[in-house]
Amino acid sequence: DTAVSQTPKYLVTQMGNDKSIKCEQNLGHDTMYWYKQDSKKFLKIMFSYNNKELIINETVPNRFSPKSPDKAHLNLHINSLELGDSAVYFCASSQAEGAYGNTIYFGEGSWLTVV
Amino acid sequence: GENVEQHPSTLSVQEGDSAVIKCTYSDSASNYFPWYKQELGKRPQLIIDIRSNVGEKKDQRIAVTLNKTAKHFSLHITETQPEDSAVYFCALFLGNQFYFGTGTSLTVIP
């Protein structure tokens, strides 16, 4: 009964390949995110979806394409993988905010290594 | 976007001592300030949060203080234990997204 689950957890692939990471949340949250954590541990927002609509699209190469078939799922597809894409990718979700933001819950992370 | 500065980037303390991590921000509209702990190889997990209508919140050995006038908030861990060793992230909510600090690697020396 994991709240935010993402697959695969580990992914090793060659440069130039295309890969996808899937994410699902069972918390009933309206908002989902993709974060990238590099070797320096910085957590960098990539995308945010609210009820399947893209609301944040940071400066990310267009090789990265998120897809949200419904508000419980947010998948990340990466084309033409490069060495610099090696990182941990965290999916996360939160409930739509009112006067205050609400807690953001992270998935377990997907360790992507491009060789 | 908002810039959240977090200090120090690394912190070593003796077991039993206190640890303090501070974050500063610039936009006074920020109203929600969570703290996350990330153990090695694990996901960031919420340990405590504070909303802008209070100045301090405590949960056992962990406390967070917020100074809205000065635009900074701090995490205080007392009586540190080896299992407190982790990377800690401050964050804030502004507009429609969360902004994270750059992380503090805390090592508690037994």
List the SSEs and their pairings.
The complex is a heterodimer of chains A (115) and B (110).
Chain A: E1 4-7, E2 10-13, E3 19-25, E4 31-37, E5 43-50, E6 53-57, E7 64-70, E8 73-78, E9 87-94, E10 105-106, E11 110-114
Parallel strand pairs in A: 2-11
Antiparallel strand pairs in A: 1-3, 3-8, 4-5, 4-9, 5-6, 7-8, 9-10, 9-11
Chain B: E1 5-7, E2 10-14, E3 19-24, E4 32-38, E5 45-51, E6 56-59, E7 62-67, E8 72-77, E9 86-94, E10 97-100, E11 104-109
Parallel strand pairs in B: 2-11
Antiparallel strand pairs in B: 1-3, 3-8, 4-5, 4-9, 6-7, 7-8, 9-10, 9-11
Helix content of chain B: under 10%
Label the overall shape of chain B: globular
Q: What value does the average pLDDT of chain A take?
A: 90
| Helix-strand pattern of chain B | EEEEEEEEEEE
Share of β-strand residues of chain B:
over 45%
β-strand amount of chain A: over 45%
Structure summarized in a few sentences:
The complex is a heterodimer of chains A (115) and B (110). Chain A is 0% helix and 55% strand.
Supply database-style keywords:
heterodimer, A: 115 residues, mainly beta, 7-stranded mixed β-sheet, 4-stranded antiparallel β-sheet, 0% helix, globular, B: 110 residues, 6-stranded mixed β-sheet, 5-stranded antiparallel β-sheet
Structure write-up:
The complex is a heterodimer of chains A (115) and B (110). Chain A is mainly beta. Chain A has strands at residues 4-7, 10-13, 19-25, 31-37, 43-50, 53-57, 64-70, 73-78, 87-94, 105-106, 110-114. In chain A, the strands form two sheets. In chain A, strands 2, 4, 5, 6, 9, 10 and 11 form a seven-stranded mixed sheet that branches. Chain A is globular, with a radius of gyration of 14 Å. Chain B is mainly β. Chain B is 0% helix and 57% strand. Chain B is built from no helices and eleven strands. Chain B starts with a strand and ends with a strand. The chains are: A mainly beta (115), B mainly beta (110). At the A-B interface, strand 5 and strand 10 of A face strand 4, strand 5, strand 9 and strand 10 of B.
